[in-house]
């Protein structure tokens, strides 16, 4: 069929099986506008919620007068912090074991913080009634710059926590400080650089929302919500609200992009649930764009100081970094409990480095909480950016070509599995091959020759056109959290269940705990089952995003679906295949041990004429066939997959930019991306994932920052100010691939969804800095907007 054999597809007796460029099943509804998003859900008698938010970044809350709002004819309830305090729900736990105000009771701590919740007959009435609420604030000085948060006399943000005297959240370190110190002490070359990875936002096109429906008769709470982790949300609601877990159903319908923004639980969700309990009717709350940008999980905001030590001939020896992490007013960072700075300490990246050390200090500021892994496995983006900038700084210092310097220091294939100096075990890789592939596609030497020629012309003032820059970045990601013994979120271990049932006619239904937000799981997970069972992809239905219908698991983020649930799916399908072998043995009157698997069929070893297809076996398993003792019949299985390690996808990216020195405008002329995510289940989806991540990288490198003024006012609360890259800013991506399977993943696959977001910003920044090299510029912080680029070259002479 049109969804037929991919490069890895096996044509069994039933045609098209398994891996390859299968068209996305979900697109049939999306391209017809038939998606079912949270805001499409309309329940009988449904009411609408709206949130009153603080205009101040830091203020004492003196009084909240709701009388006029309550008198509004269409208003059914007004909920304040005081109402919630009475229910013991004014505060909720964050994903990092801090607490966060659901509705403020004592103070407001960032602009846009939730103060009151109105429930009304219509969305408009709810919004109108917000204006009738009278709040008395006493403004307090805010902490806006993280670098002043620990100053003596800095305003204390978290005076709700007893005994707290400053804004420090944590100090954390990894690596060997002493050994690293020794390497730096006797190094021939040491370079240091301060850099900021600015606060950015995942900005999914669909904002966050919920429809909460408490059935008073059955006591069952159903919430339809934009969540990347339905099971984790259910358990947290059970623990926080004291509701019995089996009486909570979390449904995540179609999601219009997550990017980490939909991992956590937001105050609006709790308010909508309380609203439904109070009114006895379903309550919908859907935030608008400004609410999404101002109050939901931001990403990054790492002030970093990197140092690199090397020999004169370009052998990197040590890497050291100090980070000041701005976590906003509540520590709501989403990451495994034991990792307060996420996976930042993978920061030695893709290089063979003797010694490394990092120290991270987290601080509170008067900004929205979050610190989410926006297309990033828990702070790996910051880490990849840091090391890739440091390598380029070193290359500039040594006068070495940055590709050459990388090739000299990249981990070599024979070093895998590789134990990093900060305690990671990379599963597999062949890095130089991947970088060389990218250089070949780019025509690297010709590009450098063109650049040299253009620089010479510019120096002779024969040309005043744009300056050309070439930037490389090589990244290693670490995706697929657990294993459960090292990784949990709020005590919930990171392992995922899967259930597979084959119906009598050989059609299958797979139930998984992860939830797609656009990645195409309904297709790729069906492909895994098809690949393992040798049945058509179209014969497999994927059920997900509903806690009543699926096994427990921790959800989709940190590119963990393929590494963890993908593995679970392969394992559960293999269990079913083994059951099918026993049934086939009974059918063929053969010892199951004498059977051999050919795609879609068990045959008597060496005799393809005698065999049974998966469909025939399924029917027999449900029929009257006599099965061996202890074999239950039917064709189904369940599993829980606890990954032995993370998977380590990697890639080599090369950006070619043109910078107009007159205006500072950067144009990304070309972008070459060679990704290695092990075995690709659906190469077309993988390429789409890479395209999206590369566009993210253009956005962060050139256009985006969540900015605040000195009073803590948010300056980018709409898409007029917070710019999303479009096709106008993106070149036609040039992709390549290498395939280094993961040795521990049953399919050899690694995650890929985040790779391009992690790897691409450094390539673009490196390219822009490379273009500005003749001005003596060695670093500039993102975003490299025209104004910022123009500013860094002012007053600097052009010299080649
Ligand atoms: N794949 C294949 N092969 C391989 C790998 C992979 O095929 N080797 C495919 C799969 O299956 C899917 C995809 O691809 O479908 C992806 O995958 P992964 O990597 O595993 O991932 P996931 O888990 O699924 O997902 C997640 C991611 C993330 S994380 C993010 S951000 C983003 C990405 O994903 N998001 C999103 N991508 C995307 N897309 C879309 N469309 N949307 C969205 O939202 Mo975080 O942490 O959350 O921040």
From TrEMBL:
Disordered as annotated region, ranges: 1-20
InterPro entries per record: Ald_Oxase/Xan_DH_a/b (IPR000674), Ald_Oxase/Xan_DH_a/b_sf (IPR036856), Ald_Oxase/xanthine_DH-like (IPR016208), AldOxase/xan_DH_MoCoBD1 (IPR008274), AldOxase/xan_DH_MoCoBD2 (IPR046867), AldOxase/xan_DH_Mopterin-bd_sf (IPR037165), CO_Mo_DH_lsu (IPR012780)
Annotated Gly residues bias: 3-17
Enzyme Commission number, as recorded: 1.2.7.4
Stretches assigned to the Aldehyde oxidase/xanthine dehydrogenase a/b hammerhead domain: 32-141
GO terms of molecular function: anaerobic carbon-monoxide dehydrogenase activity; copper ion binding; iron ion binding; molybdenum ion binding
Pfam family, one: Ald_Xan_dh_C
Keywords: Molybdenum, Oxidoreductase
Needed cofactors: Mo-molybdopterin cytosine dinucleotide
Enzyme class, spelled out: oxidoreductase
Protein name: Carbon-monoxide dehydrogenase large subunit
Species this chain originates from: Actinomadura livida
């Amino acid at each position: 069929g049109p969804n037929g054999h991919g490069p890895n597809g096996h044509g069994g007796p039933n045609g098209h099986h398994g891996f390859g460029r299968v068209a996305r099943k979900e697109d049939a509804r999306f391209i017809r506008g038939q998606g079912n998003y949270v805001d499409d859900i309309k329940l009988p008698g449904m009411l609408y919620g709206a949130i009153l938010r603080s205009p101040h970044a830091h203020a004492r809350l003196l009084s909240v007068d709701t009388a006029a709002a309550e008198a509004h004819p269409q208003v059914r309830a007004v909920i304040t912090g005081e109402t919630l305090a009475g229910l013991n729900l004014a505060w909720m736990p964050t994903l990092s074991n801090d607490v966060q105000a659901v509705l403020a009771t004592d103070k407001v701590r960032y602009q846009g913080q939730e103060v009151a919740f109105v429930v009304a007959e219509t969305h408009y009435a709810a919004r109108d009634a917000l204006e009738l609420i009278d709040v008395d604030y006493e403004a307090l000085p805010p902490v806006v710059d993280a670098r002043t948060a620990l100053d003596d006399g800095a305003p204390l943000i978290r005076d709700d926590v007893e005994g707290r005297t400053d804004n420090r959240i944590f100090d954390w370190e990894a690596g060997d400080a002493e050994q690293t110190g020794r390497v730096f002490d006797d190094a021939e070359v040491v370079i240091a650089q301060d850099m900021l990875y600015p606060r950015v936002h995942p900005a999914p096109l669909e904002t966050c929302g919920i429809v909460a429906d408490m059935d008073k008769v059955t006591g069952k709470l159903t919430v339809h919500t934009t969540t990347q982790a339905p099971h984790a949300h259910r358990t947290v609601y059970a623990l926080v609200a004291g509701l019995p877990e089996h009486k909570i159903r979390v449904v995540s319908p179609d999601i219009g992009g997550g990017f980490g923004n939909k991992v956590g639980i937001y105050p609006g969700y709790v308010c909508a649930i309380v609203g439904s309990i109070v009114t006895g009717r379903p309550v919908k709350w859907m935030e608008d764009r400004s609410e999404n940008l101002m109050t939901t999980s931001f990403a990054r905001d790492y002030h970093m100081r990197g140092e690199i030590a090397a020999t004169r001939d370009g052998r990197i020896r040590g890497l050291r970094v100090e980070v000041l992490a701005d976590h906003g007013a509540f520590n709501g960072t989403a990451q495994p409990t034991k990792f307060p700075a996420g996976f930042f300490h993978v920061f030695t990246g893709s290089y063979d480095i003797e010694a490394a050390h990092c120290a991270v200090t987290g601080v509170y500021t008067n900004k929205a909480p979050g610190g989410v892994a926006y297309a990033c496995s828990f702070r790996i983006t910051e880490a990849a950016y840091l090391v890739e900038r440091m390598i380029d700084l070193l290359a500039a210092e040594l006068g070495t070509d940055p590709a050459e310097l990388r090739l000299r220091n990249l981990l070599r294939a024979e070093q895998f599995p590789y134990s990093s100096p900060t305690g990671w075990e990379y599963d597999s890789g062949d890095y130089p091959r991947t970088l060389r592939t990218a250089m070949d596609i780019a025509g690297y030497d010709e590009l450098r020759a063109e650049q040299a020629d253009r620089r010479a012309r510019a120096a002779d003032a024969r040309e005043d056109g744009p300056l050309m820059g070439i930037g490389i970045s090589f990244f290693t990601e670490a995706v697929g959290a657990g294993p459960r013994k090292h990784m949990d979120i709020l005590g919930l271990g990171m392992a995922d269940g899967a259930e597979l049932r084959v119906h009598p006619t050989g059609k299958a239904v797979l139930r998984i705990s992860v939830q797609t937000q656009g990645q195409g799981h309904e297709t790729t997970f069906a492909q895994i089952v098809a690949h393992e069972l040798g049945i058509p992809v179209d014969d497999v239905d994927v059920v997900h995003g509903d806690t009543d219908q699926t096994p427990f698991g921790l959800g989709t983020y940190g590119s963990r679906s393929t590494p963890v649930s993908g593995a679970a799916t392969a394992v559960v399908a293999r269990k079913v295949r083994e059951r099918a072998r026993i049934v086939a043995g009974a059918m063929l009157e053969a010892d199951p041990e004498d059977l051999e698997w050919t795609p879609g069929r068990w045959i008597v070893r060496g005799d393809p004429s005698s065999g049974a297809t998966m469909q025939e076996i399924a029917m027999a398993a449900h029929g009257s066939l006599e099965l061996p003792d202890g074999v239950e019949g039917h064709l189904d299985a369940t599993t829980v997959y606890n990954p032995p390690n993370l998977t380590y996808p990697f890639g080599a990216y090369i950006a070619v930019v043109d910078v107009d020195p007159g205006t500072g405008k950067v144009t990304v002329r070309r972008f070459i991306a060679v990704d290695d995510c092990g075995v690709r289940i659906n190469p077309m989806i993988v390429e789409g994932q890479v395209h999206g991540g590369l566009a993210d990288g253009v956005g962060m490198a050139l256009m985006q920052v969540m900015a605040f003024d000195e009073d803590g006012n948010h300056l980018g609360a709409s898409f007029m100010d917070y710019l999303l890259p479009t096709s106008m800013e993106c070149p036609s991506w040039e992709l390549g691939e290498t395939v280094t399977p993961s040795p521990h993943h049953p399919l050899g696959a690694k995650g890929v969804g985040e790779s391009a977001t992690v790897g691409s910003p450094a390539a673009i920044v490196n390219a822009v800095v490379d273009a500005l090299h003749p001005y003596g510029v060695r670093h500039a912080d993102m975003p490299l907007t025209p104004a910022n680029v123009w500013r860094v070259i002012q007053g600097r002479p052009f010299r080649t």
